[in-house]
Amino acid sequence: QVSVLYFARSAELAGLRSETLWVPRQVTSLQLWEEIVKVHPRLAVIRDQVVFAVRQEYVLLGDQLLVLQPGDEVAVIPPISGG
Amino acid sequence: MDESEGVPEDFIKLKSEKLSVDEVSELVVSPCCGAVSVFIGTTRNNFEGKKVVHLEYEAYTSMAESEIKKICRDVRQKWPSIKHIAVHHRLGVVPITEASVIIAVSSPHRAESLEAVTYCINTLKASVPIWKKEIYEDEYSWKENKECFWANSEK
């Protein structure tokens, strides 16, 4: 059970800023994305432009295996534009 | 070294109130330092012929602060003589010509602080989870820094 945070365009597409999702303890980052898109299909359009932040470290969408603990924070990160 | 010169500090703040160049530069001033370098990012009033009404910034605040902290740590590794670093970034609505970000760095001599400020703003644009929305007269656009490696290259 993880907290998923949405920002910028991803928050607009998902229609919310945060929620709790049930996910397997071990997933690849791509599998995690697919779980999220099942809940929010409109997010599919930004798939090629997002990364995750898992426990505040950036993770690309791909084969990287994530070991998630209950309460972990996962954020959907569209292209950044600070500064 | 004299105790009153103080321990090197990082001053990091994300806030919705107007930023102050005086406040940020005063944070880094130190008796041992002959140079304070400051970068101010301000908001332009136009993009591709469209009039920008104002900007809106949002942030993954806790991670943005930790990423800025990492930048400060890297700065101190690359330029060990750097004394204080201050990074203030505004969130929420920022009117045209007002500052969205102010970075100030102090060092004994000018070369290091000038280089460190450049490094700070360039790295901030590549790695800190803050997003800018440009509001035009009848639409808006989420911006993407070219430094961001996961943005589509053509924009």
Descriptive account of the structure:
The complex is a heterodimer of chains A (83) and B (155). Chain A has 83 residues and is an alpha+beta fold. Chain A has a single domain (2-77), classed as Ubiquitin-like (UB roll). Chain A contains 2 helices and 7 strands. Chain A is globular. Chain B has 155 residues and is α+β, with helices and mostly antiparallel strands. Chain B has one domain (10-138): Aldehyde Oxidoreductase, domain 3 (Alpha-Beta Complex), CATH 3.90.1170.40. Chain B contains 3 helices and 9 strands. Chain B has helices spanning 21-28, 61-78, 110-127; strands spanning 10-15, 35-42, 46-47, 50-59, 85-90, 92-95, 99-107, 130-136, 140-142. The radius of gyration of chain B is 16 Å and the shape is elongated. Chains A and B meet through loops of A and strand 4, helix 2, helix 3 and strand 8 of B.
In short:
Chain A: InterPro entries: Beta-grasp_dom_sf (IPR012675), MOCS2A (IPR044672), MOCS2A_euk (IPR028887), Mopterin_synth/thiamin_S_b (IPR016155), ThiS/MoaD-like (IPR003749). The complex is a heterodimer of chains A (83) and B (155). With 83 residues, chain A is an alpha+beta fold.
Report strand order across the widest sheet of chain A: 2-1-7-4-5
Instruction: Indicate the structural class of chain A.
Output: alpha+beta
CATH architectural name of chain B: Alpha-Beta Complex
Structural class of chain B: alpha+beta
Number of strands of chain A: 7
CATH fold-level name of chain B: Aldehyde Oxidoreductase, domain 3
Radius of gyration of chain B: 16 Å
Tertiary shape of chain B: elongated
Organism (chain A): Rostratula benghalensis (greater painted-snipe)
Keywords (chain A): Cytoplasm, Molybdenum cofactor biosynthesis, Nucleotide-binding, Phosphoprotein
InterPro entries (chain A): Beta-grasp_dom_sf, MOCS2A, MOCS2A_euk, Mopterin_synth/thiamin_S_b, ThiS/MoaD-like
GO molecular function, one term (chain A): nucleotide binding
